[in-house]
Amino acid sequence: KQFDMVIVISHHTEVDIMAVVRDIKKKFPDLPLVLLCQSVMQARTCRLEGDRSSDIDRTFLWIGNTDILLALIKGAEDRLNVAHDTRSAGIRAIIFDRHSPEYMTSLLPILYKELVSQTQAVMEEGLNEEHRLLAMRARPKILLAENYEEAVALYQQYEPYVLGVITDVLYPKAGRLDDQSGIK
Asked: Is the pTM of this model over 0.85?
């Protein structure tokens, strides 16, 4: 079967989760692979190992909140569609720079829920079905950055379309990313 994404949920078992991840990436190198960890310590360990091997695309915490699953899928869709949607339709982007799995896990579902809620509120203003689909596609795209360098690269690539930057760290007040509060 063809898959669009793999979400691996780690458990405290004897299974070497990184071996599973490596096997999947070996067979399907371009397939987005997200790891959901049971603890902050495990997430940080796996993320460090994943950074060295480039096998894990994103690491999050599994805290029982199913909203994270929708956020993971929407995030993958946004990453795939952002280049086309920004250039062809002027869709806006929000750069979400995270440095901790717990920060991203707790805030990303809230951000997606709010964006979808606001988009649906606009759609309830008597639009026909075609316009509703266009309005839903026109919601801002959320671009995840794992570090400062990736956030800067995303900002430079999509600068005319950046609606804002949300981050869990302070950047020095210089250059392009001088908005520590996350407001452009």
From this structure: no
